[in-house]
Each structure stands twice: as structure tokens, then as C-alpha cells.
Design brief:
Layout: H1 6-25, E1 30-38, E2 43-47, E3 52-57, H2 76-87, E4 91-101, E5 107-113, E6 116-117, H3 118-143, E7 154-159, E8 165-170, H4 179-202, H5 204-214
Parallel strand pairs: 3-5
Antiparallel strand pairs: 1-2, 1-4, 2-3, 4-5, 5-6, 7-8
Length: about 220
Amino acid sequence: MRALSRGARLLPLIVLLAWVTGIAGAQPATLKGTVVRIVDGDTIHVRLSDRVEKVRYIGVNTPEVHHPRKGEEPGGREAAEVNRELVENKHVRLELDVQSRDRYGRLLAYVWIGETMINAELVRLSGMRDATVRLGVAANNVANASTEGFRPSHVVSTALPGGGVDPSVVAGDVEGVDLVGEMVGMMMAQVAFAANAQIMSTTSQVDRRVISLLA
């Protein structure tokens, strides 16, 4: 058997390097359109130049509004309204992932309005909502500390699979208010709200860099 020349032996390596370099330098597929319908907190309809596409936010999973088996889940309508305020009738830019569609045929995308990534905005807003609910519950407990027979409520926060949290208020079953604990809780909620607001106003460029690195 004739030995391969040095160039022939290097050819597979050259092809592999070219393929890897092409992937590393590839940019995510981008589409532009207008939001024409809000389905729920993590899904929208976008009118492109030649069609309307159902688009699912990457990395966001909010409570359902129209689930065929579960029906409307707690918090679903509120999440849809937040999404509506952010994107309804807005011009958006869609950056598609390596897997461009899910098993239901929906486009999977990072949704941008200008320099703001809506996916990240929704996750941060859920943190602000959680802080607001905690602050309100703690304030109500403190205000009723001297009410005879009052049973303070508390907040249970459930981590959402796609990111963010879903807070729910649970009625208390024990009388008496821990004033120190409630005051500490109020301060922590205020700090959490301010932190999420600060992140929201300063990290759009970081979001873009992360997406570029992952592309």
C-alpha cells in the first residue's frame, strides 16, 4: 500500500479546522418584524415580511393562560399583560438559536427591541414582582400586628423552569407577628427590587455580548 503524502495526511485536519472556524465565526440568524398578537407571557405572534410566525422566547417559561389540560394557571394573565406592555405592536428583531424551532413548530428566539433583550427583561421583572409581593405582605403583617387573632401570611416563591420566580401568598395558620422578622423581610424586599431595577438598566450590552459568545 502506497503511503499517503504529507499534504494528503493533513487534508482532513485542514477541513476540520475550516469547519470549526466557520462555526465559531457564524452569526445567529436574524429576522425582523412586528408583534401582532400576545399569546401569553412567553409566546407572541410576529409578522415578518412574508408570513406571521408564532415565536417562543428562549429561556423564559411563564404560567400558562390557554393550556389544553391545565387551563389558566395562577399568574398567567399577569405575565401576559407584562409581555403585552413590553412588545405589543412593537418592531422587534429575532435572533434564532441553533435549534430554530421547538416540537410544536414555534420559532425559538431571543427577542430584541433596540438594545433591550425582552427575554432577560421578563426574567428580571419576575424578580421585581416577587420583591413587590413580599414587601406588600410584610407591610400588611406589620400593620396588623396588634390585631387580635391576626394570622400573618407569608410568600412562597417557585422557581420557573425557564428562569425567574412565581410568588404566591399563603395564609398563615399561627397567630402573632414577628415584628423584627417582618421588618427585616421588608428591607430585603426593597434591596431585591432595587437590585433587579439596577440590573435591568445596565446589562443590555452584557446580554448582547453573551449571545455573541454563544453564537
